[in-house]
Structure formats: structure tokens, C-alpha cells
């Protein structure tokens, strides 16, 4: 496990930019953290690096697909009752795409998470610095964490 501290929202976005450059395609990133911890800011940086300024939290739509290079697919499980709702919208089909898939609120649907993944737990809120704890499940993500 590796911990990276971001003292501003911009630093969190910059980390997202570096992260998406280091990720293999396809990839799966599971994000954990309370409201306001910076999950969407991290994904916003990933989107900016891949070619979109449109990243916003998909809380009400569950998923946003961005036709970027690489393709970015952004899920938010906050409003889901369980993983069955995620599977009902074709989650497995999204996972089979040649894309970077990011899921916010991963703790709400643990049974849906692929066995190989990068987990990032964001701790902190408000104006406080954020501690981002990166944990790899599968060898393919170890080099990603080492590159950050």
C-alpha cells in the first residue's frame, strides 16, 4: 500500500492526470471515501488528461461514458441499493470494454468488483489535506502505484 497526500483539490486532480497516464488499458479503479473526500476531483483529473472537461459526478445517472483516449467510464454507486442494480445496467459489459473504468462508492457494491483492481481510499474533507491510500489487487497495478 502507498499513501499520497494532496493538500488542494488541484493536487488531487493532478494526481488523477498522472494516474490515468500510468494505468494499463483496460483498467478498473475502485474509489472509496466519504462525501466531499475528492473522488470526483480525482476522476476530473483523469478526464482532463484523456481529453474531456465534462467530468461530473454521475450520482443521478449512475454512469458516464467519455469518448476519450483511452475511453473513460465513470460509475457512481452512491444511490444503488445493491450490486444487482449495477449489473442490471450492464456493468459486466462495461468491464469488458477497452477502457479505464472508475467506480465511486465501491464500498456499496463489493461483490461487483473485479478481482484485479486498483483501490484508492480518500480520507479527509473540507479544506483539510486528503490522504489517498492506494492498494493493488493484482500484479498489473503494482507498476502503476510505483509510478505515482
Question: How would you briefly describe this protein structure?
Answer:
This protein is α/β, with parallel strands linked by helices and 148 residues long. Helices cover 29% and strands 28% of the residues.
* Helix content, binned percent: 25-40%
**CA-based gyration radius:** 14 Å
The CATH homologous superfamily: P-loop containing nucleotide triphosphate hydrolases
Cα distance spanning the termini: 12 Å
Number of domains: 1
From the coordinates shown, what is the CATH architecture? 3-Layer(aba) Sandwich
Text of the CATH class? Alpha Beta
The number of E-state strands comes to: 7
Number of helices: 5
**Helix/strand-derived class?**
alpha/beta
Shape: globular
Strand order of the largest sheet: 1-7-6-2-5-4-3
Low-confidence stretches: none
CATH fold assignment: Rossmann fold
